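Bench notes, afternoon.
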Amino acid sequence: MKIETKFYFSHAVNIALIILMGAFIMHNSDQVLTKLRFTEFADDLNATFLEMRLSEKNYFLYGDENALHEIANKIDAADAALDRKRDDIHRAVGEAKFAQLRQLLTAYRQQVGGIRLNRRKDDNARHELREAGQRLTAFSEMTTALEREQVGIIIDRTTTTLHFAFLTVVALTLLFSLFSGRSIRRSLRRIEALTRSISEGNYRKIDKTPNSDEMGSVVLAINAMAEELRLREQEIVQSKRLASIGILVAGVAHELNNPLNNISMIAQTYNEVYDDLDKTQRIDFMNQIETQIERLRLTIRNLLDYAKPKPQHLEEKRANEVVRKTLGLVQNMLNISGIKVRLELADNLPSLYIDEHQIQQVLVNMELNAVQAMSEGGELTLATRYRKDDDKIEISIRDTGKGIPQELLDHIFDPFFTTKGDSGTGLGLWVSHGIIKNHGGTVQVESTVGQGTDFIIRLPAGNTLKRGPHGS
């Protein structure tokens, strides 16, 4: 028998058992849910009945004339609730018990109505009303207790059946494994030896005659693959090296360009205003250059280590501080380009749990894209807000530039896709999208040609990670 036939037969048996188990579980689950819904409703009903009994005492012991009116209102509310839940109660306890409960409630209503009509406060009236109330509450509480007991019985029965079905499936699987596993294991050992040899760079073939089943075909195919790999090994290795070098060079050119531009702008500004600066301001210029150089070091280190990525260094940060700090890195370029900056930063935002350097890299990349889109000046708006519905911090980078055509929006996060022609590598937004995704967030873009573009980043708030309350 072929392996395919064996597998089909085994799977058919197991699927049939699983379907039966699923039907049984669905049936019992429906029963449990129905009875649980009833017990929840019954608990509320019992509480109402107890309140009515308390009102009885208020009437007979303390002469509270409003007590009977309150009882009548609660009876009406209970009666309306029974009408609303009629179908669920029928399914849970049956029509007979539902009818009996309504009958007892009606009898209690009649007793209350008679006392209200005649304003009776004698011992007979008290005794008759008390008996009617006791019958009502006793029946309701007994029914609720029985349904809870039934829930336990159903759960126990379901658990026992599932254990039996599980053992049955395991037994059938073991039988199938013993029946068909020998030939498969022999072939797999051969394949394992061959694949281990291939992984070590030794492209030898299996010399033994393969079986006539599907595993034999696999062995033949792997033999052919081993021969082809042996012939193409040098070509493949060289292609991989060239591809890696190409990506690395493009990434380095793109990632280093931004801080180098900043250093150039800072240096030019420094030379122009040197005579007007005091010592503190000169030190500040040098500190900015040092910051950009540190960014270069980190970028080079990250890019050189791309094949062996390092774990994120997540820290608790505040979104507004990160936005302001990032803005400081590109402020000179914004000033030179004649771009106004508008900050719309919300107050009392929860904290973020992020790798600040990576998020800064994303924001700088998008802000520089905005600068390039506003070659004749414009306005850059940086906004933050808290989305309470999904517990996310939203950061918006909005420009008034030339915009992106709608047909290109679905592709701007694709690797090597660029709208800048030869001046772009198509890696910046792709890298940024990956960073945001690794932080558990999302990034989307909205754009209108001739009006501008808005990049919207959403990151999980710190309380999503249950790190406790945060300040603004």
